Amino acid sequence: GILERLRRPIVLVGLMGAGKSCVGRRLAARLGIPFVDADSEFEAAAGCSIADFFARYGEPAFREGERKVIARLMEGPLCVLATGGGAFCDPETRDRIKQGAMSVWIRADLDLLVKRTSGRDHRPLLKTGDPREILSRLMDARYPLYAQADIIVDTTDEPPEVTVAKVLDEL
Ligand code: S3P
């Protein structure tokens, strides 16, 4: 099976709203391994929400914590790990994932990202201006980095199970 062949965590990367957590949870269930969400793990470790953490300590402190949380999770039991959108853009985390995991970029277009993130206010980066403009700028900056993932899966406005099937096909 896939797991015997891989023997390393499956790490989902991509922008906010691509569906990393949603797809990751279902993918883990299909593979019969735990699902872990790096954002949730960060919040548990910090004892507050990411939005509050950003407001109190700023983004650089968040990135430092995120780096540690992901390093710890990658040492743990085999799992599907959904990362926050900025994680794979940190050189140290990206190297760690490239060395020790199977990385999957869940790629989506701007319209889908805007749609999926709208009406939700837990993402501090999208609250500093027009979300479409911010997401568009993040696409420009980050897509060349996400492109270094082992596998790239395009997602449209489709049920998460369809995206999961695409990932399983590629693994
Ligand atoms: C971020 C994405 C968020 C979260 C934080 C910063 C980013 O995670 O880690 O708000 O830099 O793209 P999601 O991609 O799960 O929304």
TrEMBL record:
Positions bound to substrate: 39, 63, 85, 142
The residues that hold Mg(2+) are 21
Please give the pathway this protein is involved in. Metabolic intermediate biosynthesis; chorismate biosynthesis; chorismate from D-erythrose 4-phosphate and phosphoenolpyruvate: step 5/7
| Cofactor note as given | Binds 1 Mg(2+) ion per subunit.
Per its Swiss-Prot or TrEMBL entry, what cofactor is needed? Answer: Mg(2+)
For biological process, the GO terms are: amino acid biosynthetic process; aromatic amino acid family biosynthetic process; chorismate biosynthetic process
> Is Transferase a UniProt keyword of this protein?
yes
Which Gene Ontology molecular-function terms are recorded?
Answer: ATP binding; magnesium ion binding; shikimate kinase activity
Entry EC no(s): 2.7.1.71
Predominant location category: cytoplasm
Q: Which domain of life is it from?
A: Bacteria
Q: Where in the cell is it found?
A: Cytoplasm
- Name the Pfam families on file: SKI
Q: Which PROSITE patterns match?
A: SHIKIMATE_KINASE
Keyword set, alphabetical order: Amino-acid biosynthesis, Aromatic amino acid biosynthesis, ATP-binding, Cytoplasm, Kinase, Magnesium, Metal-binding, Nucleotide-binding, Transferase
Q: Where does ATP bind?
A: 17-22, 123
Q: Does the keyword Transcription regulation apply?
A: no
Coiled coil regions in record: none
- What's this protein's family per the entry? Belongs to the shikimate kinase family.
What subunit structure does UniProt give? Monomer.
- Name assigned to this protein: Shikimate kinase
